[in-house]
Amino acid sequence: MRHSTTKFIYQLSEIKARYDELTSSIPARRIYYSVKSNPNPKILTFISQLGLEAEVSSLGELNAAINAGFDAAKIVYGGPGKTIGDIYSATEKGVIYFSLESISELEKICFVEKSTGKKLNRILRLLVLDNHGRLNMMMPDSKFGITLDEVREHIGNGDGDGVYGIHIYRGTQIKEAEFRASIIKTNEVVSEIESIIGYKLKYVNYGGGLEWPFMHSGKPILTLDKVEGILSGIESCFEFGRYLVASCGILETEILDIKKRNNYQILIVSAGINIINGISASGRLIRQQPEFHPPNNKSDEIMLPTAIYGPLCTPVDYLTLNTLLPQLYPGDVLRIYNCGAYAANTGLSNFLIREPAQEVFIE
Protein backbone atom coordinates (compact mmCIF):
# COMPACT_ATOMS: atom_id res chain seq x y z
CA MET A 1 0.00 0.00 0.00
CA ARG A 2 1.26 3.48 -0.87
CA HIS A 3 2.23 5.60 2.12
CA SER A 4 0.61 8.99 2.56
CA THR A 5 2.52 12.07 1.51
CA THR A 6 3.67 13.81 4.68
CA LYS A 7 6.95 15.64 4.43
CA PHE A 8 8.92 18.65 5.55
CA ILE A 9 10.87 20.21 2.71
CA TYR A 10 13.85 22.24 3.92
CA GLN A 11 15.60 24.80 1.73
CA LEU A 12 19.01 25.43 3.33
CA SER A 13 19.63 28.61 1.32
CA GLU A 14 16.86 30.26 3.36
CA ILE A 15 18.89 29.69 6.54
CA LYS A 16 21.94 31.30 4.92
CA ALA A 17 19.81 34.29 3.88
CA ARG A 18 18.56 34.80 7.44
CA TYR A 19 22.11 34.42 8.81
CA ASP A 20 23.35 37.10 6.40
CA GLU A 21 20.58 39.45 7.54
CA LEU A 22 21.48 38.97 11.20
CA THR A 23 25.22 39.42 10.72
CA SER A 24 24.65 42.55 8.63
CA SER A 25 22.71 44.15 11.47
CA ILE A 26 24.64 42.55 14.36
CA PRO A 27 28.25 42.40 13.12
CA ALA A 28 31.21 40.80 14.89
CA ARG A 29 29.15 39.39 17.76
CA ARG A 30 28.61 35.83 18.96
CA ILE A 31 25.32 34.49 17.68
CA TYR A 32 23.89 31.30 19.13
CA TYR A 33 21.48 29.01 17.35
CA SER A 34 18.72 27.79 19.69
CA VAL A 35 18.79 24.07 18.97
CA LYS A 36 15.26 23.60 20.32
CA SER A 37 13.79 25.35 17.28
CA ASN A 38 14.89 22.55 14.94
CA PRO A 39 17.44 19.89 15.97
CA ASN A 40 17.57 18.07 12.62
CA PRO A 41 21.20 16.85 12.21
CA LYS A 42 21.60 18.22 8.67
CA ILE A 43 20.27 21.61 9.73
CA LEU A 44 22.56 21.65 12.77
CA THR A 45 25.59 20.75 10.64
CA PHE A 46 24.74 23.44 8.08
CA ILE A 47 24.37 26.07 10.80
CA SER A 48 27.59 25.07 12.57
CA GLN A 49 29.43 25.43 9.26
CA LEU A 50 28.05 28.97 8.89
CA GLY A 51 29.97 29.90 12.05
CA LEU A 52 27.24 30.13 14.68
CA GLU A 53 27.50 28.64 18.16
CA ALA A 54 24.81 26.54 19.86
CA GLU A 55 22.43 27.21 22.75
CA VAL A 56 21.11 23.98 24.29
CA SER A 57 18.72 23.08 27.10
CA SER A 58 19.30 19.35 27.57
CA LEU A 59 21.99 16.70 27.29
CA GLY A 60 20.20 15.38 24.20
CA GLU A 61 20.48 18.75 22.48
CA LEU A 62 24.08 19.03 23.63
CA ASN A 63 24.99 15.68 22.08
CA ALA A 64 23.21 16.63 18.85
CA ALA A 65 25.11 19.93 18.68
CA ILE A 66 28.50 18.35 19.33
CA ASN A 67 27.82 15.62 16.75
CA ALA A 68 26.98 18.35 14.22
CA GLY A 69 30.34 20.06 14.71
CA PHE A 70 29.65 22.78 17.27
CA ASP A 71 32.55 23.49 19.62
CA ALA A 72 31.51 22.31 23.09
CA ALA A 73 33.68 24.98 24.73
CA LYS A 74 31.54 27.71 23.10
CA ILE A 75 28.12 26.10 23.62
CA VAL A 76 25.93 27.70 26.29
CA TYR A 77 23.84 25.27 28.36
CA GLY A 78 20.61 26.82 29.68
CA GLY A 79 17.06 25.93 30.61
CA PRO A 80 15.35 25.35 33.98
CA GLY A 81 15.62 22.27 36.16
CA LYS A 82 19.29 21.40 35.62
CA THR A 83 20.52 18.68 37.97
CA ILE A 84 24.03 18.18 39.30
CA GLY A 85 24.20 15.20 36.94
CA ASP A 86 23.28 17.40 33.95
CA ILE A 87 25.92 19.98 34.79
CA TYR A 88 28.55 17.34 35.51
CA SER A 89 27.87 15.46 32.24
CA ALA A 90 27.94 18.67 30.18
CA THR A 91 31.19 19.70 31.86
CA GLU A 92 32.76 16.34 31.03
CA LYS A 93 31.80 16.93 27.38
CA GLY A 94 33.66 20.26 27.39
CA VAL A 95 30.92 22.80 28.18
CA ILE A 96 32.07 25.78 30.28
CA TYR A 97 29.22 28.28 29.71
CA PHE A 98 26.14 27.70 31.88
CA SER A 99 23.08 29.97 31.98
CA LEU A 100 21.73 29.48 35.51
CA GLU A 101 17.99 29.72 36.21
CA SER A 102 18.01 29.78 40.02
CA ILE A 103 20.16 30.28 43.09
CA SER A 104 20.09 26.51 43.64
CA GLU A 105 21.58 26.01 40.18
CA LEU A 106 24.35 28.40 41.18
CA GLU A 107 25.00 26.18 44.19
CA LYS A 108 25.00 23.08 41.98
CA ILE A 109 27.56 24.53 39.59
CA CYS A 110 29.79 25.44 42.54
CA PHE A 111 29.58 21.80 43.67
CA VAL A 112 30.53 20.52 40.20
CA GLU A 113 33.46 22.96 40.04
CA LYS A 114 34.81 21.65 43.34
CA SER A 115 34.34 18.00 42.37
CA THR A 116 35.90 18.36 38.90
CA GLY A 117 38.46 21.09 39.55
CA LYS A 118 37.22 22.92 36.45
CA LYS A 119 36.41 26.63 36.29
CA LEU A 120 32.98 27.18 34.74
CA ASN A 121 31.46 30.42 33.44
CA ARG A 122 28.48 31.21 35.68
CA ILE A 123 25.91 33.22 33.75
CA LEU A 124 22.83 34.45 35.62
CA ARG A 125 19.59 34.14 33.64
CA LEU A 126 17.70 37.14 35.01
CA LEU A 127 13.97 37.59 35.44
CA VAL A 128 13.30 41.25 34.70
CA LEU A 129 9.56 41.88 34.53
CA ASP A 130 8.59 42.93 31.05
CA ASN A 131 5.82 42.27 28.56
CA HIS A 132 7.03 41.78 25.02
CA GLY A 133 6.48 39.06 22.47
CA ARG A 134 3.61 36.68 21.85
CA LEU A 135 5.06 34.20 24.34
CA ASN A 136 6.14 36.23 27.35
CA MET A 137 8.90 34.78 29.54
CA MET A 138 8.97 37.64 32.04
CA MET A 139 5.73 37.16 33.99
CA PRO A 140 5.92 37.54 37.81
CA ASP A 141 5.33 33.80 38.36
CA SER A 142 7.64 32.68 35.54
CA LYS A 143 9.72 29.54 36.00
CA PHE A 144 12.57 31.30 34.22
CA GLY A 145 15.42 33.21 35.77
CA ILE A 146 16.68 34.86 38.94
CA THR A 147 15.30 38.19 40.18
CA LEU A 148 17.47 41.18 41.07
CA ASP A 149 16.25 40.88 44.67
CA GLU A 150 17.50 37.28 44.76
CA VAL A 151 20.87 38.43 43.45
CA ARG A 152 21.06 41.09 46.20
CA GLU A 153 20.05 38.62 48.90
CA HIS A 154 22.13 35.61 47.94
CA ILE A 155 25.15 37.07 46.16
CA GLY A 156 25.62 40.67 47.21
CA ASN A 157 28.62 42.96 46.91
CA GLY A 158 31.93 41.14 47.03
CA ASP A 159 30.31 37.69 47.43
CA GLY A 160 29.93 36.83 43.77
CA ASP A 161 33.38 36.87 42.24
CA GLY A 162 32.38 33.79 40.26
CA VAL A 163 29.60 35.53 38.28
CA TYR A 164 30.79 35.66 34.66
CA GLY A 165 27.83 37.38 33.04
CA ILE A 166 24.09 37.73 32.61
CA HIS A 167 21.48 36.42 30.21
CA ILE A 168 18.13 38.09 29.54
CA TYR A 169 15.54 36.55 27.22
CA ARG A 170 12.32 38.53 27.35
CA GLY A 171 10.12 36.44 25.08
CA THR A 172 9.57 35.12 21.60
CA GLN A 173 7.94 36.58 18.48
CA ILE A 174 9.18 40.05 19.48
CA LYS A 175 8.85 42.90 17.01
CA GLU A 176 12.07 44.36 15.68
CA ALA A 177 11.57 47.78 17.29
CA GLU A 178 11.07 46.15 20.70
CA PHE A 179 14.13 43.97 20.17
CA ARG A 180 16.29 47.00 19.37
CA ALA A 181 14.93 48.91 22.38
CA SER A 182 15.69 45.95 24.65
CA ILE A 183 19.44 46.41 24.09
CA ILE A 184 19.49 49.62 26.14
CA LYS A 185 17.28 48.06 28.83
CA THR A 186 19.67 45.12 29.11
CA ASN A 187 22.65 47.47 29.39
CA GLU A 188 20.94 49.13 32.35
CA VAL A 189 20.58 45.73 34.02
CA VAL A 190 24.26 45.01 33.39
CA SER A 191 25.15 48.20 35.28
CA GLU A 192 22.79 47.30 38.12
CA ILE A 193 24.24 43.80 38.48
CA GLU A 194 27.78 45.19 38.47
CA SER A 195 26.84 47.59 41.26
CA ILE A 196 25.43 44.66 43.27
CA ILE A 197 28.40 42.29 42.84
CA GLY A 198 31.10 44.97 42.91
CA TYR A 199 33.01 44.23 39.70
CA LYS A 200 32.66 44.24 35.91
CA LEU A 201 30.93 41.43 34.07
CA LYS A 202 32.66 39.64 31.21
CA TYR A 203 29.58 38.43 29.31
CA VAL A 204 26.09 39.56 28.34
CA ASN A 205 23.55 37.54 26.35
CA TYR A 206 20.96 39.95 24.94
CA GLY A 207 18.61 37.14 23.88
CA GLY A 208 16.75 37.33 20.60
CA GLY A 209 13.22 36.15 19.87
CA LEU A 210 12.62 38.13 16.68
CA GLU A 211 9.21 37.46 15.18
CA TRP A 212 8.60 35.33 12.11
CA PRO A 213 5.33 33.92 10.71
CA PHE A 214 4.40 30.40 11.80
CA MET A 215 2.44 28.25 9.31
CA HIS A 216 1.80 31.34 7.18
CA SER A 217 3.59 32.76 4.17
CA GLY A 218 5.54 35.99 4.57
CA LYS A 219 9.01 37.25 5.51
CA PRO A 220 9.37 40.23 7.90
CA ILE A 221 12.99 40.88 6.92
CA LEU A 222 15.22 42.60 9.48
CA THR A 223 16.04 46.17 8.46
CA LEU A 224 19.63 46.90 7.46
CA ASP A 225 20.30 49.48 10.18
CA LYS A 226 22.96 48.34 12.63
CA VAL A 227 21.67 47.34 16.05
CA GLU A 228 22.84 50.14 18.34
CA GLY A 229 23.98 50.13 21.95
CA ILE A 230 25.71 46.73 22.04
CA LEU A 231 28.36 46.82 24.75
CA SER A 232 31.99 46.55 23.69
CA GLY A 233 34.85 45.17 25.76
CA ILE A 234 32.61 42.32 26.88
CA GLU A 235 31.40 39.06 25.31
CA SER A 236 28.18 40.35 23.74
CA CYS A 237 25.96 37.52 22.53
CA PHE A 238 22.59 36.96 20.89
CA GLU A 239 20.48 33.85 20.32
CA PHE A 240 18.06 33.11 17.51
CA GLY A 241 16.11 30.04 16.50
CA ARG A 242 12.82 30.79 14.80
CA TYR A 243 14.26 33.69 12.78
CA LEU A 244 17.02 31.50 11.37
CA VAL A 245 15.09 28.38 10.36
CA ALA A 246 11.34 29.13 10.13
CA SER A 247 11.39 30.16 6.49
CA CYS A 248 13.39 27.13 5.34
CA GLY A 249 10.59 24.64 5.99
CA ILE A 250 7.44 23.72 4.06
CA LEU A 251 5.04 21.04 5.31
CA GLU A 252 3.21 18.95 2.74
CA THR A 253 0.22 16.93 3.94
CA GLU A 254 -1.99 14.60 1.91
CA ILE A 255 -5.76 14.55 2.11
CA LEU A 256 -6.71 11.04 3.23
CA ASP A 257 -10.49 11.35 3.34
CA ILE A 258 -13.26 13.89 2.80
CA LYS A 259 -16.74 14.23 4.27
CA LYS A 260 -19.49 16.67 3.23
CA ARG A 261 -21.60 17.75 6.19
CA ASN A 262 -23.65 20.85 7.05
CA ASN A 263 -22.39 22.67 3.93
CA TYR A 264 -18.79 22.06 5.06
CA GLN A 265 -16.12 19.96 3.49
CA ILE A 266 -14.34 18.10 6.27
CA LEU A 267 -10.82 17.01 5.42
CA ILE A 268 -8.85 14.27 7.16
CA VAL A 269 -5.16 14.92 6.44
CA SER A 270 -2.00 12.97 7.16
CA ALA A 271 -0.36 15.67 9.28
CA GLY A 272 -2.23 16.37 12.47
CA ILE A 273 -0.82 17.10 15.89
CA ASN A 274 1.15 13.87 15.58
CA ILE A 275 3.33 15.66 13.02
CA ILE A 276 3.21 19.36 13.84
CA ASN A 277 3.04 21.18 17.15
CA GLY A 278 1.29 18.70 19.40
CA ILE A 279 0.83 21.39 22.04
CA SER A 280 -2.10 22.54 19.93
CA ALA A 281 -4.15 20.53 22.43
CA SER A 282 -3.54 23.45 24.80
CA GLY A 283 -4.92 25.87 22.21
CA ARG A 284 -1.69 27.43 20.96
CA LEU A 285 -1.75 26.04 17.43
CA ILE A 286 -5.49 26.45 17.03
CA ARG A 287 -5.15 30.18 17.63
CA GLN A 288 -2.56 30.34 14.85
CA GLN A 289 -5.14 29.45 12.14
CA PRO A 290 -2.68 27.94 9.62
CA GLU A 291 -2.63 29.15 6.03
CA PHE A 292 -3.23 26.23 3.66
CA HIS A 293 -2.11 26.30 0.03
CA PRO A 294 -4.02 23.92 -2.29
CA PRO A 295 -2.63 22.54 -5.55
CA ASN A 296 -2.02 25.30 -8.09
CA ASN A 297 -4.61 23.93 -10.52
CA LYS A 298 -7.37 24.58 -7.97
CA SER A 299 -6.55 28.15 -7.00
CA ASP A 300 -9.27 29.74 -9.15
CA GLU A 301 -12.15 27.51 -8.03
CA ILE A 302 -15.05 28.49 -5.77
CA MET A 303 -14.01 28.54 -2.11
CA LEU A 304 -15.85 26.33 0.36
CA PRO A 305 -16.04 26.43 4.18
CA THR A 306 -13.59 23.79 5.34
CA ALA A 307 -12.57 22.04 8.55
CA ILE A 308 -9.25 20.18 8.62
CA TYR A 309 -8.54 17.32 11.01
CA GLY A 310 -5.53 15.11 11.50
CA PRO A 311 -5.71 11.29 11.61
CA LEU A 312 -5.48 10.75 15.37
CA CYS A 313 -8.28 9.25 17.48
CA THR A 314 -8.88 12.38 19.56
CA PRO A 315 -11.13 15.42 18.98
CA VAL A 316 -8.27 17.85 19.72
CA ASP A 317 -6.45 16.72 16.57
CA TYR A 318 -7.49 19.50 14.24
CA LEU A 319 -5.61 22.24 12.41
CA THR A 320 -8.59 24.49 11.74
CA LEU A 321 -12.35 24.30 12.12
CA ASN A 322 -13.16 27.10 9.71
CA THR A 323 -11.16 28.12 6.68
CA LEU A 324 -11.92 28.56 2.97
CA LEU A 325 -10.51 26.18 0.35
CA PRO A 326 -11.58 24.99 -3.11
CA GLN A 327 -13.21 21.60 -3.51
CA LEU A 328 -10.57 18.99 -2.79
CA TYR A 329 -10.25 15.23 -3.14
CA PRO A 330 -8.36 12.37 -1.48
CA GLY A 331 -4.79 12.36 -2.73
CA ASP A 332 -4.58 16.15 -3.09
CA VAL A 333 -1.66 17.71 -1.22
CA LEU A 334 -1.84 20.88 0.89
CA ARG A 335 1.23 23.00 1.65
CA ILE A 336 1.90 25.06 4.79
CA TYR A 337 4.79 27.54 4.71
CA ASN A 338 7.18 28.74 7.44
CA CYS A 339 7.30 25.34 9.13
CA GLY A 340 11.06 25.18 9.66
CA ALA A 341 10.89 26.04 13.36
CA TYR A 342 8.96 24.38 16.21
CA ALA A 343 7.18 22.07 13.80
CA ALA A 344 8.77 18.70 12.97
CA ASN A 345 10.13 18.35 16.52
CA THR A 346 6.96 19.25 18.41
CA GLY A 347 4.39 16.69 17.27
CA LEU A 348 2.84 14.00 19.48
CA SER A 349 4.97 11.34 17.83
CA ASN A 350 4.27 8.60 20.40
CA PHE A 351 0.48 8.98 20.39
CA LEU A 352 -0.90 6.18 18.18
CA ILE A 353 2.71 5.45 17.12
CA ARG A 354 2.19 6.71 13.58
CA GLU A 355 5.01 7.15 11.07
CA PRO A 356 6.92 10.45 11.29
CA ALA A 357 7.01 12.85 8.38
CA GLN A 358 9.78 12.54 5.82
CA GLU A 359 12.39 15.31 5.88
CA VAL A 360 13.70 16.34 2.47
CA PHE A 361 16.52 18.83 1.84
CA ILE A 362 17.10 21.29 -0.97
CA GLU A 363 20.42 23.14 -1.09
Record keyword descriptors for this entry:
alpha/beta, eight-stranded parallel β-barrel, seven-stranded mixed β-sheet, 9 helices, 17 strands, 26% helix
Task: Please give a structural write-up.
This protein has 363 residues and is an alpha/beta fold. It has 9 helices and 17 strands. It has helices spanning 12-25, 41-50, 59-67, 84-92, 103-116, 148-154, 176-197, 242-245, 284-288, and strands at residues 6-11, 30-34, 53-56, 76-77, 97-100, 121-125, 135-136, 163-167, 171-172, 203-208, 235-240, 249-261, 264-269, 303-309, 318-326, 333-336, 358-362. It is elongated.
Question: Secondary-structure blueprint of this entry?
Answer:
Elements: E1 6-11, H1 12-25, E2 30-34, H2 41-50, E3 53-56, H3 59-67, E4 76-77, H4 84-92, E5 97-100, H5 103-116, E6 121-125, E7 135-136, H6 148-154, E8 163-167, E9 171-172, H7 176-197, E10 203-208, E11 235-240, H8 242-245, E12 249-261, E13 264-269, H9 284-288, E14 303-309, E15 318-326, E16 333-336, E17 358-362
Parallel strand pairs: 1-17, 2-3, 2-11, 3-4, 4-5, 5-6, 6-8, 8-10, 10-11, 13-14
Antiparallel strand pairs: 1-12, 7-9, 12-13, 12-16, 14-15
